[in-house]
User: What shape does this take?
Amino acid sequence: MPRQREATTGAGSPPALPTKPVPRELRRERKSLLQVREERLRDLGGLALEMYKRDRFNAGLVVERCAELVAIEARVHEIDAVLDGSARLRRKSVTCVCGAPFLLGARFCATCGRPVAEASAGSSDAAGLQ
Assistant: This one.
């Protein structure tokens, strides 16, 4: 009888090996993250408008909401890298020449205003010189 309890509780079984992520689940997670991102972007715009209307700007709150958005975008980039099955994102620069990270879907750098294509070409040229 004690053997059955041990077998059912898994006390004597070896630890489970990490499983490979299922592409279908990753795509589903990516889709839901993009929906959450769009919602949060709309909310951020509404928040900024309300703060402007009331003449009470709370920089800490805006920074907190932006940090959440950047974290969501980082997770989407991770999922894209796994789904690509290559090191494309590691090889291709995801930061501008000025050092700022590109936001998902951005055409221009949020910090310096350079177009994304120009800024990534400049950073790859700089990497070739080193």
Observations:
- Helices lie at 2-9, 23-54, 59-84, 88-91, 116-129.
- The chain is about 65% helix and 0% strand.
